Amino acid sequence: MSDNEIIPKNQRLFLITQGCFHILMGVFVASTVWLMAYNRDWGSMHTWHVFLSTIGFALLMAEAVAMQNPGNGFFLGYGKIARGFLHGVLMLLATTAVLAGVSIKIQDKALNNRSHFTTTHGIVGFVSYLLTMLSFLGGILLFFVKLVLRICNLRPIYLRKCHTFLGISAYALGIVSLCFGLRNYFSEASYHTNTGFIVILGTYTGLNLIGPVKNLFSP
């Protein structure tokens, strides 16, 4: 890297993809929340389930994953420790939102005597929820990695790779479940599936996963 080069060439691709990611994420989240507000059905448990799941996976967890990307323009000046701390805070908020969303839906189905986790959306979402909890636990272990090393002779790289794999899996499956759920919600709320929204969600999720997948398979 030359003296006049602020951003290394190998990070410019990430800078472009992260720029596209943030634009698409803003469009998707704002449009989805606007549709919910337009329908004014906040008294429904189902609406709160959709809202909290969208905020949890499509916004907070997405940004937590993006925090670890080298091209994230919002955090270029932040060090590794600061990024890790902010990543943990965002994941805590995302996990809380997802937990609340799942709990509300379980209560909604129990009150209406409906079966739990019988659809593709429900099954994939539940698996994603479990992986989210495991990933969050892995993040806590990484935060106290020195204590973990005293208890068991485990190389930090293995713990970090496991945490990354669980995080990628939880995020990807959460988005897949969200796509199934939003497809049904859009059909009920606006009488058409709004496939464009689903495409936007899938596109910016793919862009966001480039960095984490690269880190997962790097030495």
Written overview of the protein:
The protein is mainly alpha-helical and 219 residues long. It has a single domain (11-34, 43-217), classed as Four Helix Bundle (Hemerythrin (Met), subunit A) (Up-down Bundle), CATH 1.20.120.1770. Helix content is 79%, strand content 0%. It has helices at 9-39, 45-66, 80-111, 120-143, 145-151, 156-190, 195-208, 210-217. The chain is globular and about 50 Å long. It is found in: Membrane. Keywords: Electron transport, Heme, Iron, Membrane, Metal-binding, Transmembrane, Transmembrane helix, Transport.
Tell me briefly what this model is.
This protein has 219 residues and is mostly helical. Helices cover 79% and strands 0% of the residues.
Number of strands: 0
- Summarize model confidence as the mean pLDDT: 86
Biggest sheet overview: none
CATH architecture assignment: Up-down Bundle
Distance between the termini: 22 Å
InterPro entries: CYB561D1/2, Cyt_b561/ferric_Rdtase_TM
Protein name: ascorbate ferrireductase (transmembrane)
Enzyme class: translocase
EC number: 7.2.1.3
Descriptive terms for the model:
single chain; 219 residues; mainly alpha; Four Helix Bundle (Hemerythrin (Met), subunit A); 0% strand; disordered N terminus
Topology:
Elements: H1 9-39, H2 45-66, H3 80-111, H4 120-143, H5 145-151, H6 156-190, H7 195-208, H8 210-217
